[in-house]
Amino acid sequence: MFDPYDIIVVGAGHAGCEAAYAAASIGKKTLLITMNMQVMGQMSCNPAMGGVAKGQIIREIDALGGMSGIISDRSMIQFRMLNRSKGPAMWSPRSQNDRNLFSSIWRHTLENVSNLDIYQEMVSGLLIKGDKVVGVKTQLGIEIQSKAVVLTNGTFLNGLIHIGDKNFGGGRAAESRATGITEQLLSLGFESGRMKTGTPPRIDGRSLDYSKMEEQPGDEIIEGFSFMDTEKPKEQRCCWITYTNENVHEALKEGFDRSPMFNGSIEGVGPRYCPSIEDKINRFADKERHQIFVEPEGWNTNEIYVNGFSTSLPFDVQYKALQLIPGFENAKMYRPGYAIEYDYFPPMQLDHSLQTKLIKGLYFAGQINGTTGYEEAGGQGLLAGINATRSIDDLPPLVLGRHESYIGVLIDDLVHKGTDEPYRMFTSRAEYRILLRGDNADQRLTPIGKEIGLANEERVSKYQERKTEIAKILSLFQEVKITPEEVNGLFAELGTADLKQQMPMANILTRPQVSLEHLMRIEKVRSNFDTFSFSALSSAEIEHKYQGYIEKEQDVVNKSLSLEELIIPETFNYEKVNSLSTESRQKFTKIRPKTLGAAKRISGINPSDIAILMVHIGR
Hints:
With about 625 residues, the chain is an alpha+beta fold. The chain folds into 4 domains: about 5-200 and about 340-440, FAD/NAD(P)-binding domain, CATH 3.50.50; about 200-340, Elongation Factor Tu (Ef-tu), domain 3 (Beta Barrel), CATH 2.40.30.260; about 455-550, Arc Repressor Mutant, subunit A; about 565-619, GidA associated domain, C-terminal subdomain (DNA polymerase, domain 1, Orthogonal Bundle). Helix content is about 35%, strand content about 20%. It contains 21 helices and 22 strands. The strands form 5 sheets. Strands 1, 2, 6, 7, 8, 9 and 20 form a 7-stranded mixed β-sheet that branches. Strand 7 and strand 8 form a beta hairpin. The longest helix has 23 residues, at about 455-480.
């Protein structure tokens, strides 16, 4: 039989792996329970990590001491920095990954973590004593005691897979669904809902004609995600882009009457920002074509992921429409696309630590909270694992502010605004984007990782080295002087005014047209800067060029934090504040924000509501 554990993590997806790694690494005796050890850290959908805002989250996980960044770097087959044409707040790292390698590295990592045990079975329920969780119960009837439980069930809670008019229970293709937990949580007073997501068909890459597609290579410089010295691939695999057309759309429409999306078979709400192909051509009927990204699944496989063609249409309709796409005329399918709907629990039932308000010691992370995406799940899992350990030690939870991280924005949005559709992170959700860049995640968060005991000595040393390196570069920007003779030829190429007199590099770099890369063409500049890392040079240039914007944004943060210092008493009775609208009173009573700043961020709350609260709290 099992000895008692400090923490039990249920589910070994991206949230569960990060939660288990964090809890065990901080020093707690941890058990990770999964239904299938062969697919730990599985990329259920796209074999890729990062992307817009998501790449920043992986950098933050890495900076705190989590593993998603390192594992992404070690398993990547292509790297690209997205949005390079925009400002640095929008730059977002993204990797194409080897699906099987990613999963196997996660498993190897977890199997070698001290304090962590792994067990394969289905958890069918929780052990509850009063208002506290004290363990879990498995399908075999085994009861395992613990001081805290983190649920990271992904799409498995009463999962139902749809392909055309066929549907069957499952948490993922060829994997069983999990039952029992939803029903127990409902009996304890929790609210639940249904959500839906989907995945495209997988194709035999040997059957495609890539000459009819646009090649999409990776970046020449592979920056990666981790701030550690991770090994990067020496070569990269290409992706390709092709497009649907009117013939594809007409073929898809032939199956609409058998589509679970349109015939009422699916009850769950799907992701607005990642719609199925049938949803795209229905909602955007004016569009003549849609992009299709042709993405390899790994180094040693022919399997291709057809990004942009997520569908739950019948098998024959999928096949016919696919073969009308340029380059797919002779495509052979490995497996069809499908939709899956599953239970989730509206996240306003959590506090900022991701602990449930109803049951102490019980934490939710990942898709159970209504989010979508590996990165969003990983960030929640990391914080849930950290906070479960801190609750056991009677330490205050780690709550990251909206000005400190995208993870903080994510959790704050979930707790205060909830979600009635799969929540996906975007840069537009963050008010302080210039402060939350991917390049400075270590400067923002590694000191916190050290303080909570997750960032190890090697990581902290790397952070300090990089901090010193950036400071030295910024100093050299002031010290290195450039003459008109050295630079005016370059300035003519760049379309910027000639230099009239010798000037520090710092002044020259403030010109929008001029970058450090341009100045590195000058021998004097190269000799001073070519010993520094690409990462440190990039961060230093951003800090210097955008210093004014950074300072202004920090001033806004400082002003907004004043509201965070105004505590709302836990016993405050909103029902007695008659000047508040009925809707506002109900929202405040349900969510019970801890500060005026938190109250301000609740969806539907007006500035006048905050002013009224401020007056009453002052009284």
